[in-house]
């Protein structure tokens, strides 16, 4: 079998394994849906959120939806893959795979395609949940759906590569969650996922600007929020060009680090 065919086989295996793991389903697949429900229910009685006097307003659920979409990408890519691959290194799975004819590229294809496909399913369920349960209006402009497509695709590929690269950091499978989850939570809090980005201190906004999640969340806000909300962004613009540039830059960095660090067998154990 060629590399692509083996990658397709690995993709099927990864997807089946993913949906058999309760912790992965809860902390990566269902987590954004649960958090959207919590935020919407908690703040629904406080009224709508807007840009200021005379500006557009949306419900709290609608305001938090872009952040939950971005968080879903981060969890599906970075958290899920970093923890899973670190555990596979620790329990000897990668060592056994290294003794087979499976090329590393096929392994990567399986991991990244499984993240993409499960991520798309997660996105569809999240949007259906937002629309049917909380009545959150979804975009009607086809251009916004096109923006969602390229931002989501670039984001999930970037986060998947960063997850693979990050898997080299934990010393064992047991320590993987302790290393990865705090980092993921930190990025979510400083990147405008759980807190309105415009209300964060300037130094925190500047720090978040170095990382891809801030730009991914900003891109998602450009899709789901009225154009008037761009006045709350740095520079009062959505800056989709910068969104693409920063995500692409992190994608290249993730690819380079993965190429330099990935081994079937740990060399520092």
Counting structural domains, the number is: 1
Q: How much helicity do the residues have?
A: over 70%
Order of strands, main sheet, comes to 1-2
Mass-distribution shape:
elongated
Strand-pairing-aware structural class: mainly alpha
Query: How would you spell out the order of helices and strands?
Result: HHHEEHHHHHHHH
Q: Count of DSSP E strands?
A: 2
For the sheet with most strands, the description reads:
2 strands, antiparallel
Approximate strand percentage? under 5%
Number of helices: 11
* Rg over CA atoms: 19 Å
Structure commentary:
It contains 11 helices and 2 strands. With 269 residues, the chain is mostly helical. The protein has one domain. Strand 1 and strand 2 form a beta hairpin. The model has no long low-confidence stretch (mean pLDDT 92).
What order do the helices and strands come in, and which of them pair?
Blueprint: H1 3-18, H2 22-29, H3 31-43, E1 49-50, E2 57-58, H4 60-90, H5 93-98, H6 104-134, H7 142-166, H8 173-190, H9 202-208, H10 212-224, H11 240-261
Antiparallel strand pairs: 1-2
Helix pairs in contact: 1-6, 2-4, 3-4, 3-6, 4-6, 4-7, 4-8, 4-10, 6-7, 7-10, 7-11, 10-11
């Amino acid at each position: 079998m060629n590399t692509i065919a083996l990658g397709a086989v690995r993709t099927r295996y990864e997807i089946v394994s993913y949906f058999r793991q309760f912790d992965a389903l809860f902390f990566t697949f269902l987590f954004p849906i649960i958090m959207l429900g919590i935020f919407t229910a908690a703040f629904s009685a406080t009224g709508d959120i807007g840009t200021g006097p005379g500006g557009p307003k949306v419900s709290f659920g609608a305001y938090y939806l872009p952040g939950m979409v971005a968080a879903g990408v981060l969890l599906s890519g970075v958290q899920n893959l970093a923890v899973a691959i670190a555990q596979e290194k620790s329990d000897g799975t990668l060592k056994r795979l290294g003794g087979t004819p499976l090329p590393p590229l096929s392994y990567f294809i399986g991991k990244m395609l499984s993240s993409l496909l499960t991520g798309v399913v997660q996105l569809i369920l999240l949007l259906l949940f937002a629309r049917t349960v909380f009545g959150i209006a979804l975009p009607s402009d086809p251009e916004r759906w096109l923006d969602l497509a390229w931002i989501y695709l670039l984001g999930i590929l970037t986060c998947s590569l960063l997850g693979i690269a990050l898997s080299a950091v934990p010393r064992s499978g047991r320590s993987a969650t302790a290393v990865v989850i705090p980092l993921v939570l930190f990025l979510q809090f400083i990147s405008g996922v759980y807190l309105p980005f415009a209300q964060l201190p300037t130094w925190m906004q500047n720090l978040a600007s170095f990382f891809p999640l801030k730009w991914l969340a900003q891109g998602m806000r450009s899709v789901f929020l009225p154009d008037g909300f761009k006045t709350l962004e740095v520079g009062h613009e959505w800056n989709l060009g910068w969104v693409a540039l920063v995500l692409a830059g992190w994608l290249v960095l993730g690819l380079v680090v993965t190429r330099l660090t990935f081994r079937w067998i740990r060399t520092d154990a």
